[in-house]
Automatic annotation (TrEMBL):
Gene3D superfamilies associated with the record: 3.40.50.2300, Homeodomain-like
InterPro entries, A to Z: ActR_PrrA_rreg, CheY-like_superfamily, Sig_transdc_resp-reg_receiver, WalR-like
Residue span, Response regulatory domain: 13-127
Protein name, entry field: ActR/PrrA/RegA family redox response regulator transcription factor
Natural source organism: Yoonia rhodophyticola
Modified residues (4-aspartylphosphate): 62
Superkingdom of the organism of origin: Bacteria
Keyword terms: DNA-binding, Phosphoprotein, Transcription, Transcription regulation, Two-component regulatory system
């Protein structure tokens, strides 16, 4: 899909919930160019307030927010507007959370980094069709490297703690961290 406006039907309202302010602004701007009427929230509380007061036709919700779990916003929205199409976005992709998101009513689940085209395709996809595979998927080495980097950051860049959580020898982890990221 290109960045021109799409046929979204009568209700083109879209709620974006993410605590990464820069990402939220970029995605909001890109989705407005595609014809959505965007409203943003930076927390679970703000997302739930909008979902309760003005439940949108579409929503993109980050899974982990500073004040809680984005699935709480999904549940609120699903209760107020059952037909809404909801995509859960997360940097912490795991099968268990994907299953939980879909069970409580998410239409789709995307791992970050996802761009506006990925989000739009997920929001507008019909449930009876599978989405096309990504054009340039990350290599297995890159996925592994990204996961190690994320855990390293979550452990406040503590090599010993990261190695323990990854069940990896500390020296092995240090060698991986010293290398450039794979393509």
């Amino acid at each position: 899909m290109d960045s021109t406006a799409l046929d979204l039907g009568e209700d083109n309202s879209l709620l974006l919930v993410d605590d990464d302010e820069a990402f939220l602004r970029r995605l909001a701007k890109a989705m407005e160019k595609r014809g959505f009427a965007v409203e943003t929230a930076g927390s679970v509380a703000a997302g739930q307030a909008i979902a309760t007061g003005r439940p949108p036709a579409y929503a993109v919700v980050d899974l982990r927010l500073e004040d809680g779990n984005g699935l709480d916003v999904v549940e609120t929205l699903r209760a107020r507007r059952p037909e809404s199409r909801i995509v859960v976005l997360t940097g912490y992709g795991a099968i268990a959370t994907a299953v939980a998101a879909v069970k409580i009513g998410a239409t789709d689940y995307l791992a970050k980094p996802a761009d506006a085209t990925d989000v739009t395709n997920a929001l507008l996809a019909r449930t009876d069709t599978l989405p096309p595979p990504p054009e340039n998927p990350m290599s297995a080495d890159r996925v592994r490297w990204e996961h190690i980097q994320r855990v390293y950051e979550l452990c406040d860049r503590n090599v010993s703690e990261t190695a323990r959580r990854l069940s990896m020898h500390r020296r092995t982890l240090q060698r991986i961290l010293a290398k450039r990221s794979p393509r």
